[in-house]
Write a structure and sequence with these properties.
CATH superfamily: Luciferase-like domain
Number of helices: 14
Mean pLDDT: 94
Radius of gyration: 19 Å
Helix content: 40-55%
Oligomer: single chain
Shape: globular
Strand content: 15-25%
Low-confidence stretches: none
Distance between the termini: 14 Å
Number of domains: 1
């Protein structure tokens, strides 16, 4: 099992309070995550502040671009993977994005993983691209993945899609990794299908072993139908961690946190259909022994990577206490992922 830390690039006002992390804090999280044996860090992606965040906080949050952030983190780390968790693909043109990803993969020595999705907030997309307000974002994601594959894999790339078009683009250097790993984020069937047919991983969020097991069955079926090996496709859910001396203490800390309130806000989008009461049991909330048991159950359901875990804490210091405790009391029970990263 591989483990990752959610890097607080665009989390203030949502998962964490405003203000939260400075640029120096973010790099320090990455450096310490590598030292503690985590396999990756995963920074999320936003361009504009959401309406509910504006209403909840008197000052706007800082949203740091994850790719620019990773350029700095790459220089301060050596083996830590740099994952986007997740990059909102409809917000970025594939030609520009392909150049950025290939450059980052080169400078980091092949450590980039690209988690992509439609984005949790349609309002943000429509604010930035009002002319595209009626376009289904899932269509943009699928076209963009196909365009990225062409740009990153072919000497000269021409693409004629419904939404993206370019001709005779010769883009070099190519990434170190071939193919550059792309993980499809989301719980919907369309996200699973994109992982099965186009990606190297499926990145669901906030669901437990039963739903993951059902998703894995679909993933394997669609991968085989596409002539791909299902075993080569990672299953990497993103969950929340809150450890405590007792289950009651862990739950109380979780429900007081900004992360809990953020999950409630996502019930109309990426966590539609997920019962609020299940947040404690679905996520990694409890004593280290309880959490270790849940990780083992996820592993049995087909999970091989817990990516970009969001650790509860209303300050960076509180968050890092959880990061350290998880590394100390949970990760040793799953040594394979730690050994593999070295």
């Amino acid at each position: 099992m591989k483990f990752g830390v959610g890097l607080p690039t665009c989390t203030a006002g949502m998962m964490y309070p405003v203000p939260f992390a400075t640029p120096e804090d973010i790099v320090s999280v990455a450096v310490e995550a590598e030292r503690l044996g985590y396999w990756e860090v995963a920074g999320n992606d936003h361009f504009s502040t959401q309406a509910y965040v504006r209403q909840a906080w008197p000052r706007p949050p800082d949203f740091f671009d994850p790719l620019i952030t990773y350029a700095y983190c790459a220089a301060r780390t050596s083996v830590l993977r740099l994952m986007t968790g997740v990059l909102v693909l409809p917000m970025r043109h594939p030609v520009v994005l392909a150049k950025q990803l290939a450059t980052l993969d080169r400078f980091s020595g092949g450590r980039v993983i690209v988690g992509v999705g439609v984005g949790a907030y349609r309002e943000e997309f429509e604010s930035c691209y009002p002319d595209l307000a009626g376009v289904p974002r899932a269509e943009l994601v699928e076209e963009s993945i196909r365009a990225l594959r062409s740009l990153l894999g072919e000497r000269r790339s021409t693409f004629e899609g419904r939404h993206y078009r370019f001709r005779d683009v010769e883009m070099y250097p190519k990434p170190v990794q071939d193919p550059l790993p792309i993980f499809s984020a989301g719980n919907a069937d369309g996200s699973i299908r994109r992982a099965a047919t186009l990606g190297q991983g499926w990145l669901p969020a906030g669901i437990g072993p039963e739903r993951i097991r059902a998703g894995v069955e679909k993933l394997r079926r669609w991968a085989r139908a596409a002539g791909r090996d299902p075993a080569a496709i990672s299953v990497a859910p993103q969950l929340i961690v809150c450890l405590g001396a007792t289950e009651a203490a862990a739950r109380a800390t979780f429900e007081r946190s900004q992360l809990y309130h953020h999950l409630v806000s996502l019930q109309g989008s990426t966590l539609r259909g997920v019962d609020i009461e299940s947040y404690v049991t679905v996520n990694l909330v409890g004593t280290p022994d309880v959490v270790s048991g849940r990780v083992a159950e996820l592993e049995r359901a087909g999970v091989d990577h817990l990516c970009g875990l969001y650790f509860v804490g209303n300050t960076v210091g509180e968050m890092m206490e959880q990061v350290r405790e998880f590394a100390r009391s949970v990760m040793p029970a799953f040594p394979e992922g730690v050994a593999e990263r070295k």
